[in-house]
Each structure stands twice: as structure tokens, then as C-alpha cells.
Amino acid sequence: AYERSRERLAREGRAVPDGYPELALRESNEFRGNDFSGAKLSDVWFRNGIDLTRQRLPAGEDYLYLPDAATALDRARDLLNQRPADDLQPKVARLLDILGEAVDDGQRQLLLREKDFQWRKPYVAATFDLLRKAVAT
Fold this sequence. Notes:
5 helices; about 140 residues; elongated; single chain
């Protein structure tokens, strides 16, 4: 991508700006100071290590913020295992595993909306109930 950009600048007769190679070749982007507090985030996933503590996030009943997602997911799994087994248990466990994949990819905090998971309606409420309890403990 850097080479294409450099070639495009050359075709346009423009010089490569100072510091551009370092920016273009960096391994990750910095994502901080964004104000999402007034936004309605729908089907939004922060991934690969976006530090949510450095953003202003929306709040309210629609959102579930997991400031330490790994710990919250572990607690939710423990709470799930303490419940009597039922038909929802494997589906709830799978949804927790899906959320855990984001943590495995470097995302330390999660911001979730239950409405974004309605395609999993039968067990979404049970999963979010466990996560809310996990964050509260």
C-alpha cells in the first residue's frame, strides 16, 4: 500500500510528506479521543486492541460495557456452569466463546448491545443476564 501511495504521489508531481513512510508502514493505528457518547452504535465492534478507556462511549440500558472483558467472560462461564443444565446452556456457552474470540485477538474491553444479537434471540437474553451479573461481581 505504501508503494502504491508513493507512486500515486509521484504521478501527481507531489513529494512524499515528511513522516509519511513511518505512518504508512506502522503496524497499528492509534484510535483515541473519539466521542461516541451521543451516537447510537448499531452492529459496531471494536476489535484488535482498540482501547475503549480512551474513548467517550455511549451509555444507557442498550449498552453493556465490559471494562475487563476476559474476566467478565470467565465469570459468566462460571455462572453458566453453576446453573442447572438446560437447552440454552450450549448456545450461551458458544456466544460467550464468540465474544472471547475478540478478546483473544487483543480487545481488552467490549461494548455490546443486546439488540445487535437478536438473530440469536432464544439465548441472547440469558447470555447478557450472565454478563451483567459477571460485571456486577
